[in-house]
């Protein structure tokens, strides 16, 4: 690390701390040449590989923008979208890979979006999964209904254990 004051090529780490969300490390450094201190911030990079082969940095803002289109006219808050984007980023970072396919980012969006708003989920899934027929929509809706019925059956079993 070059000293920003005297451009010396070496520095000594005096203190290291992780950020609140754990996504970066803040380091206090001291230059052995001029003795001045400075701060560096280290973050891990996560890149998305698009179908065209173009590689770009992962962006929560892009996730929010894509999901916002699917949520247009739905009662979904900006805070909910920000939390969804955070969950998506945590999911893709958990893979441990520095590069992830755009397709995998889309898959990571589907689960949290389904929990957030079923209509927005269907809109997003119809574009993302290239629905081409009414049967594609019917299958997705049937899956949502089956999950909903499964949840209500579980709730009944928990609520009425004597029966």
Number of domains: 2
The radius of gyration over CA amounts to 23 Å
Low-confidence stretches: 153-163
Query: What is the element string, with H for helices and E for strands?
Result: EEEEEHHEHHH
Largest sheet: 3 strands, antiparallel
Class per helix and strand makeup: alpha+beta
Shape: elongated
Helix segment tally = 5
Determine the strand fraction and express it as a percent band.
15-25%
**Would you count the extended β strands for me?**
6
Helical residue percent band: 40-55%
Chain-averaged pLDDT: 85
Report how far apart the termini are.
69 Å
Task: Provide the spatial order of strands within the biggest beta sheet.
Answer: 1-2-3
Topology at a glance:
Layout: E1 12-18, E2 24-30, E3 37-43, E4 47-49, E5 55-57, H1 60-70, H2 78-93, E6 99-101, H3 102-116, H4 118-128, H5 134-159
Parallel strand pairs: 4-6
Antiparallel strand pairs: 1-2, 2-3, 4-5
Q: What does this protein structure show overall?
A:
With 163 residues, this protein is an alpha+beta fold. Helix content is 48%, strand content 18%. The protein has helices at 60-70, 78-93, 102-116, 118-128, 134-159, and strands at 12-18, 24-30, 37-43, 47-49, 55-57, 99-101. Strand 1 and strand 2 form a beta hairpin. Helix 1 (60-70) packs across helix 2. It is elongated, with a radius of gyration of 23 Å. 13% of the residues are buried.
């Amino acid at each position: 690390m070059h000293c920003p004051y005297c451009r010396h090529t070496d520095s000594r780490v005096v203190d290291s701390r992780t950020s609140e969300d754990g996504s970066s490390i803040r380091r206090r450094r001291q230059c052995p040449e001029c003795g001045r201190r400075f701060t560096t911030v280290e973050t891990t990079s996560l890149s998305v590989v698009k179908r065209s082969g173009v590689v770009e940095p992962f962006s929560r803002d892009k996730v929010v923008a894509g999901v916002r289109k699917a949520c247009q006219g739905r009662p979904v808050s900006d805070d909910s979208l920000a939390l969804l984007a955070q969950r998506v980023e945590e999911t893709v970072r958990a893979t441990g890979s520095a590069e992830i396919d755009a397709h995998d980012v889309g898959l990571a969006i589907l689960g949290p979006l389904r929990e957030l708003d079923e209509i927005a989920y269907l809109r997003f899934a119809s574009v993302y999964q290239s629905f081409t027929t009414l049967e594609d929509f019917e299958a997705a809706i049937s899956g949502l209904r089956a999950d909903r019925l499964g949840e209500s059956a579980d709730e009944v079993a928990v609520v009425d254990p004597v029966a």
